[in-house]
Design brief:
With 750 residues, the protein is an alpha+beta fold. Among the domains are: 107 residues, 3-Layer(aba) Sandwich (Rossmann fold); 194 residues, no CATH class; 197 residues, no CATH class. It has 26 helices and 22 strands.
């Protein structure tokens, strides 16, 4: 309390104890000393700070005569260099040792053996006036020493104080686990239902509103004995055509990839889709050519019309088993477990996807040519003839067998070969196709993945997953092909017919007069069958346009997507993305660029609000529980601190006797509450972490949901700080009460 360093403190303490003859007893505790030794400790305590005056109240009152003489001899020695004022009822001691005796009766001085003469007092400039001030570390040390003398009591007290912290920590752990689970569900769900922006889209909600209004319009009464037609279809088609809106995806793509947009910060992935087919074939053509993508299984069953034919950009049934994976490795790895091999890194690498039970359905097996598609034709024929078809036995495959799968990628342009100056479709020429497949790029299965059991949803079903690099490879290779270059070099000439594109929709008629001399000579040398093929080519391309030819060839501009799929991370992020799109639209309108305004489709928009409300309700309930726990914890800590004050009354008196101020006393008890709060917080966090393991197991056993109750490190640190803060706050009143205790009364306790 005098601002003395530790080394100097120990030195002074030893010197003070030596002066009172207790140098050899330095390592003993006070309760191991006799009454006389205790009194000498009190004298040592009084002189250790080198005071100018020592007040001794009946220093020999409870001592025998021999011990009393020892104490008085010490005080006599001390009085040689400072003033000792002793209060005693022992007249003999006073007369034997004192140099001045003042007698007091009922508080009034009755005699003074050596009265002072009245004279001006001289200033004592030799000694500086000291103000005691206890450092907080000293207070911590005092409190820690006190707590360590009662280890069991301290631990139990800290445990009692930690109950509230345990409750809060468990709630936070469960809340974190539930929130992480909800976030995972949101992320998995949104990976299957992205925000979709199509090149041409229909404002469905507006269309329905319009049609409902038309249906409710009152019409004139036609009850005239005749039946009248009603133009519903024309009205519906007119409404649909009026509600079709075109999106400028080229400009929006530039916006997404610019620094101006922050949409990418809220997404797991942004996918750009193109009007592009990936033509994949089974590598082995020894038993015939098998196309594995787009799937031909439905055609084998005679249901080709249902096999995903697109009309106006709308596919009524997607039968393909090849899926582009999200461009987000972290999300994919959280949704799928790698069973064998590796994840694809290059454009020519793909993964095989199985379900959570390591199964793959036979539709995928037939589509990929692993099972013979001819089996389906045979079974379908038997069923149509009324014959009974036995269910095939389930087959099994080793990882190595599936990792040995390899496919061939054929470009749209590979189907055409130049003959007699014209590009001819050779897709039906088996020998030609086998040669092309043999020369084509290999697409290798490099890994097998399955749906993670903790994943609520996945972005891909069973089949083959490929990365966007494969799509980019096909686009670039297609644009580099000779047929595409020829078509782009002359936008007015159809590369399949050598004729100019028709400006009207009427079918062009094959006419030798329209052909060049070179073409006429070439045709004149053809067989009737070849001429028939040429005429068929002309017929197929009679209504072709420059744009339709490029589309047929798969010539895509990578900067001009036909649709954009935005995968938000959470529902909140989906809202932020929607707001960002609205801001983009407003900016385009303000700049007079109405053609750039974006209309999008959000399949989970209506679901989001209800889920968000549920999350908010759960959060509010948890906050209420936390608040109750905090109040209970604070009251408990305040009571515990007050009990500590009552127990340490004697210590308060001793501290005040050696010069501690009221502020110092408060500091000591604040230090104790600080330590108790720290221990309580650490105990609470430790118990919470230990309880999280059985709680997680119990929740999984009861619900089957893998919620990992986990206390975040930052949350744990904050709880420890809250524990210390609450104990200090709760201990302020007891500490204030302790500081106000009368030191004399405090010393007389016990």
């Amino acid at each position: 309390m005098s601002g003395v360093n530790k080394k100097e403190r120990r030195k002074r303490a030893k010197e003070a104890l030596n002066k009172v003859g207790l140098g050899e007893q330095i390592h003993k505790k006070p309760n191991q000393l006799s009454g006389g030794q205790m009194q000498r400790v009190a004298i040592a305590r009084a002189i250790v700070n080198d005071p100018s005056i020592i007040l001794a109240d009946e220093p020999t009152g409870a001592l025998d005569s021999k011990t009393s003489k020892q104490v008085m001899d010490i005080l006599k020695e001390i009085s040689k260099d400072r003033l000792v004022i002793m209060v005693t009822h022992n007249k003999e001691l006073a007369e034997e040792y004192s140099s001045r005796i003042i007698k007091i009766l009922d508080g009034v001085i009755t005699d003074d053996s050596n009265p002072c003469e009245s004279k001006a007092q001289e200033k004592n400039t030799e000694k500086e006036k000291r103000r005691t001030s206890m450092k907080f570390l000293t207070a911590l040390n005092l409190s820690l020493n006190n707590l360590m003398t009662k280890k069991g009591r301290t631990i139990l007290t800290a445990f009692a104080g930690s109950i509230g912290i345990i409750g809060i920590a468990l709630i936070l752990s469960l809340s974190t686990g539930i929130q992480n689970y909800i976030n995972k569900v949101e992320e998995d769900t949104l990976s299957s239902y992205p925000i979709s922006i199509e090149e041409a889209t229909i404002d469905t909600s507006s269309m329905l509103e319009t049609m409902m209004q038309e249906d409710s319009d009152e019409e004139e009464n036609t009850d005239d004995g005749k039946i009248h037609s009603q133009n519903i279809m024309t009205e519906m088609l007119s409404t649909i055509s009026n509600k079709v809106e075109n999106n400028n995806l080229t400009e929006f793509k530039k916006y997404l990839e610019s620094n101006e947009s922050d949409i990418k910060d809220y997404t797991n992935s942004i996918q750009y889709e193109y009007n592009l087919n990936l033509n994949l074939y089974k590598e082995d053509t020894s038993s015939g050519i098998v196309k594995v993508n787009p799937s031909t299984v439905m055609e084998k069953l005679g249901m080709g019309a249902m096999a995903g034919e697109q009309q106006n950009g709308i596919s009524f049934m997607n039968t393909d088993v090849w899926t582009k994976m999200l461009d987000n490795e972290e999300l994919l790895h959280s949704q799928y477990d790698l069973l064998a091999g590796q994840w694809p890194k290059n454009y020519n690498e793909v993964v095989l996807i199985v379900d959570g039970n390591n199964r793959i359905n036979d539709y995928v097996l037939y589509s990929l040519g692993i099972k013979e598609q001819n089996e389906l034709e045979n079974m379908m024929g038997k069923l149509q003839n009324g014959e009974t078809v036995e269910e095939p036995e389930n087959t099994t495959y080793t990882y190595d067998e599936l990792l040995d799968l390899s496919f061939k990628i054929i470009l749209n342009t590979d189907y055409y070969e130049k003959e007699n100056g014209l590009w001819v479709n050779k897709q039906e020429d088996e020998e030609y196709m086998k040669e092309k497949i043999n020369e084509a790029e290999n697409i290798k299965v490099v890994g097998i993945i399955k749906q993670n059991e903790n994943s609520a949803a996945t972005s891909m079903a069973g089949g083959i997953g490929y990365i966007k690099d494969l799509e980019e490879y096909v686009i670039n290779k297609t644009n580099e092909s000779q047929i595409v270059k020829e078509q782009k070099e002359n936008e007015t000439i159809n590369v399949f017919t050598g004729l100019e594109f028709s400006e009207n929709e009427e079918e062009q008629v094959f006419n030798m007069q329209n052909l060049s001399q070179e073409q006429q000579i070439a045709i004149s040398q053809m067989s009737p069958e070849e001429i028939a093929d040429i005429m068929e080519t002309y017929r197929e391309n009679s209504k072709a346009t420059y744009e339709s030819n490029l589309e047929k060839l798969g010539a895509v501009n990578i900067e001009e997507p036909t649709s954009i799929l935005i995968y938000p991370k959470t529902f909140d992020d989906k809202e932020r993305i929607s707001n960002a799109i609205e801001e983009y639209n407003k900016k385009q309108q303000d700049e007079g660029k109405e053609e750039n305004v974006i209309t999008y489709t959000d399949l989970v928009g209506t679901m989001m609000k209800s889920v968000t409300n549920i999350i908010d309700a759960v959060s509010y309930a948890l906050i209420a529980f936390v608040s109750i726990s905090l109040v209970v914890s604070s009251i408990m800590i305040g009571i515990i601190t007050y009990i500590s004050v009552l127990e340490r009354t004697k210590e308060i008196g001793i501290l005040r006797a050696i010069g501690a101020s009221k502020k110092d006393i408060s500091k000591v008890f604040n230090a104790e509450t600080f330590i108790v709060g720290l221990i309580a917080g650490l105990i609470g966090i430790g118990i919470t972490i230990a309880l999280s393991i059985p709680i997680n197991s119990l929740i999984y056993a009861l619900s089957g949901v893998a919620i990992k109750a986990t206390l975040e490190p930052l949350a744990g640190l904050i709880l420890v700080l809250i524990s210390m803060f609450l104990t200090i706050i709760a201990g302020l009143i007891p500490a204030k009460m302790a500081s106000k205790k009368d030191p004399v009364e405090a010393l007389r306790t016990e």
